[in-house]
Amino acid sequence: MRLGLFGGSFDPVHFGHLLLAESCREQQRLDRVLFLPAATPPHKQGFERTSGIRRAEMLELAVGGHEPFGISRFEIDRGGVSYTVETLRHFRQEAPEAELFLLMGADMLYDLPHWREAAVVCQLATPIVVRRAGVAEPDFDVLAEIASPERRQQMRAHQVEMPAIGLSSTEIRQRVAAGRSIRYWTTPSVEQYVLQHGLYRRPTGEAPGA
C-alpha cells in the first residue's frame, strides 16, 4: 500500500487541492490519498477558520465518487494544534505495512526544517514535493540538516509536476464575502454547500494560498 497523506486547512477545498492530489496519485502510483483537514495548523494559530466538521464535509463532497481519495478526521477529532509528526506516528501505527508519502507544495519544502521534529517527519514519510509546470526544481539541500544525501535524493526522485493553477482558499472566501461567484473555483457540490450554510459571508484573516 502506497498511502499519500495531504494535510491542510482546506477552508474551503478547491480545484487546486484536488489537482495536486490527483497529480501525486497518478505520477507516483499511490494506491490511496487521504485528505487531512487540520484542527489548528501550527502556522495559523490565532486565525479564525471554519469548523473542522464543515471543512471535512466539504472535502467529502469534493472527493465523493473518486475511490482512491478519502478523508481522515484524525486531526480534527484529536483537536489542538495539528503537528505533522504526530499524525505520521498515528498512521505508522495504524498501517505499519504501508509506505507513507507526505504531499506538499514546493514552497512548503523551505519551511520543512522548522517543523516540529522535522528529521523524524522525513523518516516516517517520503515528502512528495509538487511544483507547478515551468517552475524550476526546488533546492532539496535546504534539508541538509535533517535528511541524509540519500534521503534527499529519494525526495528528488519523487517530485511531481502539476499544471499551473492560480486558485486559493483565501480568494474564494473573499469572493463569497464580496457577493461574487465561486463557480469553477471549486466543485459544484462545495459551492452549493458554501451558499446553503452561509459560509464566508465576511472575510477572515488567513494568508493567501491557505
**Quick one: how many beta strands?**
6
Main pleated sheet: 6 strands, parallel
Strand content: 15-25%
User: Regions with pLDDT < 50 over 5+ consecutive residues?
Assistant: 205-210
The span between the termini is 29 Å
Morphology: globular
Can you characterise this structure?
This protein has about 210 residues and is of the alpha/beta class. The protein has nine helices and six strands. It has helices at about 15-25, 50-65, 75-80, 85-95, 105-110, 120-125, 150-155, 170-175, 190-195, and strands spanning about 1-10, 30-35, 70, 100-105, 125-130, 160. The chain has a six-stranded parallel beta sheet, sandwiched between helices.
Summarize it.
This protein has 210 residues and is α/β, with parallel strands linked by helices. It has helices at residues 15-27, 52-63, 74-78, 84-94, 106-109, 118-124, 149-157, 169-177, 188-196; strands spanning 2-8, 32-37, 69-71, 99-105, 126-132, 160-162. It has a 6-stranded parallel sheet with strand order 3-2-1-4-5-6, sandwiched between helices.
